[in-house]
Amino acid sequence: MQARLLNRETGDLAPHDLTKSITTDLFHTFAPAPHHRFNGEVSSVSSLDDTEERAHRIRAHGAGVSGLALEKFDGRILVSGGSEGSIKIWDLEETRNQNQRHTFRPVSTIARSTGGRRGGGHSHGITHLGFYPFDPDAFLSSSYDKFLKLWATKRSALTAEFDLNATIYSHAMSPIADHLLVACATQHSNVRLVDLKSGSAVQALVAHGGPVLCASWSPRYEHILASGHADGKVRIWDVRRAGGVIAQLDQEDSLGVVHRYRHATASGADWIRMPHFRGSAQAHDEAVNGLTWTDDGKHIVSAGLDRKIRVWDAVSGANTLASFGPLIQNQHAKTAPMVVTPSGLSSSRELLVWPNDQEILILDLHDGDVITRLRSPGTTNPVGPRGGEMGRNRITTIVWRGSGGGTGQNGSVMGGGNSVGGIYSAHLDGQIRAWMPQIPGPDDIDETEEVHEDEEKRRRKRKAVDSAYRSLMGTQITFTGR
């Protein structure tokens, strides 16, 4: 660490390279942050929050937390959904010091609807939450009550609702498109597209593979959508075309469409008239319930109930054969949340954050290596038999707190606002848990290394350490060399 800081100060190490190097180290230091608690129970007595007994009883949602969403702009507003149908909004900037004990309380609550199905909150459990891609003051919610609803964050007010007459397992909006289409994965065998601009369900992408459990838009092409189905298939759609599926991912294909094209042309076959994929191609041997793209759009990541995670080349459709081993747990027929870290965030390639039932795995996306395992407090055997009270500790969804991973002056950075980054997980036991990297302050430098150094050199080292850690929070750093 000392060598890297001195190399940066002398100009031998670029700011972006230093940030990636430090961030890589931080991934290995992630740990539970039990000093951050989320108390959504109105009847709780704050004076008792400091006792350990009371801490274990604190719940964000008494019936269990089934959904989480975190806005990506400031990493400040967290929205949670309960298994009973309520939605709560939390301000993560309530505490200015992320290392101090703090009990968060919702700044607003959208109550479960009991008097009717229209014009208010959801009447059944929340299935998915997601912020509007271009505005943190709007988010979407879906529920077992078969409604998709659009909310104004600041006012906690309903602005639009859509009755799809089918259970909505998850929904997705394009992060780049001019269109306002919401792709909804439903219990029926088609993907429903809802146009927020026109206020209607405008299209259905018809397949015949049973329920659709997940959907994800390409971050490079605004009309390309991937969907995961109960028949084990991942279908790729161009929503502008009426002809249906344009590709299917094939676990047996490690070469991709480019290889097939070259083979066809070399043999004199008419590529235009040939099928470009096998109709029987499957991405997984069982239902596909997890799907996401890397932020550069170069890879697609899928997860199935066969307990496999696969990484695909998004250009050729080839299975990259990345192997994550037998550690992966995935056995619940609901949308599986997973997070891929922004490209260039660390010295490694992208990392996959995977909720492994009662623990969180941070994995190298391309070689499957385990970077670290985060276990919920009280979990002694997270990959052993489930059931009883231990099953109540199961993770239902996770979100990543970051600042977008763009390539600004400081490059890709972790964290938002006063945070250096973190993971928030929702659990069936009603708790929201925080996980954060352990970061030393400038005063934690080993003084024995400095005993023979003059005061000016110590001052320069401390300034470099402080600047490096501030860079992780998006604060501009300037090195003058003096």
UniProtKB/TrEMBL annotation:
<keyword id="KW-0677">Repeat</keyword>
<keyword id="KW-0227">DNA damage</keyword>
<dbReference type="InterPro" id="IPR020472">
    <property type="entry name" value="WD40_PAC1"/>
</dbReference>
<feature type="compositionally biased region" description="Acidic residues">
    <location>
        <begin position="443"/>
        <end position="453"/>
    </location>
</feature>
<dbReference type="InterPro" id="IPR015943">
    <property type="entry name" value="WD40/YVTN_repeat-like_dom_sf"/>
</dbReference>
<dbReference type="GO" id="GO:0006283">
    <property type="term" value="P:transcription-coupled nucleotide-excision repair"/>
</dbReference>
<dbReference type="InterPro" id="IPR019775">
    <property type="entry name" value="WD40_repeat_CS"/>
</dbReference>
<dbReference type="InterPro" id="IPR036322">
    <property type="entry name" value="WD40_repeat_dom_sf"/>
</dbReference>
<feature type="repeat" description="WD">
    <location>
        <begin position="281"/>
        <end position="322"/>
    </location>
</feature>
<dbReference type="InterPro" id="IPR042238">
    <property type="entry name" value="Rad28/ERCC8/Ckn1/ATCSA-1"/>
</dbReference>
<dbReference type="InterPro" id="IPR001680">
    <property type="entry name" value="WD40_rpt"/>
</dbReference>
<keyword id="KW-0234">DNA repair</keyword>
<keyword id="KW-0853">WD repeat</keyword>
<dbReference type="Pfam" id="PF00400">
    <property type="entry name" value="WD40"/>
</dbReference>
<dbReference type="GO" id="GO:0000109">
    <property type="term" value="C:nucleotide-excision repair complex"/>
</dbReference>
<protein>
    <recommendedName>
        <fullName>DNA excision repair protein ERCC-8</fullName>
    </recommendedName>
</protein>
<dbReference type="GO" id="GO:0043161">
    <property type="term" value="P:proteasome-mediated ubiquitin-dependent protein catabolic process"/>
</dbReference>
<feature type="repeat" description="WD">
    <location>
        <begin position="58"/>
        <end position="100"/>
    </location>
</feature>
<dbReference type="GO" id="GO:0000209">
    <property type="term" value="P:protein polyubiquitination"/>
</dbReference>
<feature type="region of interest" description="Disordered">
    <location>
        <begin position="440"/>
        <end position="465"/>
    </location>
</feature>
<dbReference type="GO" id="GO:0031464">
    <property type="term" value="C:Cul4A-RING E3 ubiquitin ligase complex"/>
</dbReference>
<feature type="repeat" description="WD">
    <location>
        <begin position="205"/>
        <end position="240"/>
    </location>
</feature>
